[in-house]
Amino acid sequence: MSDTFPVSDADSISVADQPMPKWWTRLFTLFVLICPFYLLYFHTGAPGRSEIERYERVAFEITKKRFAEIGELQPTRATILEYTKKPNWLKVGKMVFKTHCVSCHGRNGEGGVGPNLTDDAYKHVHDIEDIARVISEGANNNAMPAWKDKLSTNELVLVAAYVASLRGTHAPGGKAAEGSVPPPWDAAPADPGAGDGG
Q1: Closest listed residue to residue 118, CA positions, set 162, 169, 165
Q2: Quick one: 43 and 127 in the same domain?
Q3: Based on the domain organization, do 64 and 76 belong to the same domain?
Q4: Are 110 and 167 found together in one domain?
């Protein structure tokens, strides 16, 4: 007969003092023994082992496969214009924007530290291909950083197409317009000597 511990003298309720089942204590002990090895393997900064790195590796492989469909894009006026009309590829450009650009240009391109990308005015941009150039080379003495060494050419083209597609959307709470207004993207290229000289 097992020992019991009375809970209340008034109603004579008691609880049996049974040990934990052996399978449970063994399983618990096994987990305790495995934990240090798990932590060492996955959380010591060894390359390729963290969940984030594995996710990034898979995402990179998927992106590579998708980019294989379109080959190596060139940041030309015609290419950027073409991809402003392809919603599936604009989503890729939007993802690049959300990953790298929101801290300066706002979540919807409304501006912040950087200019508003949803009005019709631009700094350093006279034609649509200048967007890719500014993203690639930077501007304003690196106030706008150069992304050419951080993004692939395809990412540059697609994020340029996404930024171009934001023109005229006038996101709520947008920063005041800065720069000059270039002709519509599908118009003939603007004279590079015109505008604000930036």
Answers
A1: 169
A2: no
A3: no
A4: yes
* Three-class HEC string of 57-97: HHHHHHHHHHHHHHCCCCCCHHHHHHHCCCHHHHHHHHHHH
Nearest to 96 by CA among 112, 109, 114, 85: 109
50 and 103 part of one domain: no
| 150: nearest Cα among 139, 137, 131 | 137
Give yes or no: residues 116 and 155 share one domain: yes
Residue 198: pLDDT band with limits 50, 70, 90:
very low
Q: What are 53-84's pLDDT values in tens digits?
A: 778 778 778 877 888 888 999 999 999 999 99
Domain count within the chain: 2
Asked whether residue 1 is domain-assigned, the answer is: no
Give the domain range for residue 126: 72-198
H or E stretch covering 145 = none
| Nearest C-alpha neighbor of 81 from the set 90, 70, 91 | 90
Q: What is the reported pTM?
A: 0.67
Q: Who's near 195: CB < 8 A, 6+ residues apart?
A: 126, 179, 180, 182
